[in-house]
Design brief:
This protein is an alpha/beta fold. The chain has 2 domains: 19-146, Rossmann fold, CATH 3.40.50; 161-220, DNA polymerase, domain 1. The chain contains 11 helices and 6 strands. The protein has a 6-stranded mixed sheet with strand order 2-1-3-4-5-6. α1 links the parallel β1 (19-23) and β2 (42-46). α1 (30-37) packs across α6, α7 packs across α8 (180-189) and α10 packs across α11. It is globular, with a radius of gyration of 21 Å. 25% of the residues are buried.
Length: 221
């Protein structure tokens, strides 16, 4: 029996490519050039509030070895990590040969090991060590494939909000210490932005915890 090549095929599902959102500050990164050339993902470049990449419900901060060490010394990374704590799924990628640093700079090796342990133990920050920009890009692509079906909300500051509900969340997430989950809880408890802004510190404490005072002070400043 000959196969009829003119027979219409059944409805074929077109596989949607997973999305990776990259911060605009990564535009000079070789990682970004690797992602742009990839046919496995869709790349969106945006101005992210926190971190270098957003993939599904994950936020990812990327540091080259040199940047990792300098941000450790300046304590800039600590501030970034504190901001990332609001997000349940986070990852820090350290790009480069850290063993080479240990061999060439024994003076800093002790501090570096101690800092890495602190990231793991005190900040519960998952770490991933990549060899170079290509390796980093492949890890990001792999993560994007795994997270493709994740339905949990991500920060609306990674994209332009369209609906009124999204716009409300967008406004709330502009405040320090308020991420996707807390913005949702606030809007569940109080009907609109005005009632949230007019709420007392005590009313906000069960959701914002210690950040309630900071939130009110910012509104009243």
């Amino acid at each position: 029996m000959l196969h009829n090549i003119f027979k219409k095929r059944g409805k074929e599902k077109i596989k949607e490519k997973p999305l990776i959102i990259a911060d605009i500050h990564e535009k000079n990164s070789l990682v970004l050039s690797e992602l742009i050339s990839s046919k496995e993902i869709i790349l969106e470049i945006s101005s992210l509030k926190i971190a270098d990449y957003v993939i599904g419900t994950n936020i990812i901060e990327r540091k080259t070895i040199s940047d990792f060490i300098s941000s450790m010394i300046s304590k800039r990374l600590i501030q970034q990590l504190k901001q990332m704590q609001e997000y349940p799924k986070k990852l820090l990628i350290i790009e480069g040969d850290i063993n080479q640093v240990y061999k060439e700079n024994s003076d800093i090796s002790g501090a570096l090991r101690g800092f890495i342990i602190s990231l793991l133990m005190n900040y519960q920050m998952p770490l991933l060590f990549s060899e170079d920009c290509k390796d980093t890009a492949q890890y990001l692509i792999t993560l994007a494939k795994q997270q493709k079906k994740t339905k949990s909300p991500i920060s609306l500051h990674s994209r332009i909000p369209k609906t009124k509900e999204e716009q409300k969340k967008y406004v709330l997430e502009a405040f320090p210490g308020i991420g996707p989950k807390k913005s949702e809880k606030l809007l569940e408890k109080l009907p609109n932005l005005l009632s949230i802004f007019n709420a007392s510190e005590e009313e906000l404490k069960d959701i914002l915890k210690s950040k309630a005072g900071e939130f009110k002070n910012l509104l009243n400043s």
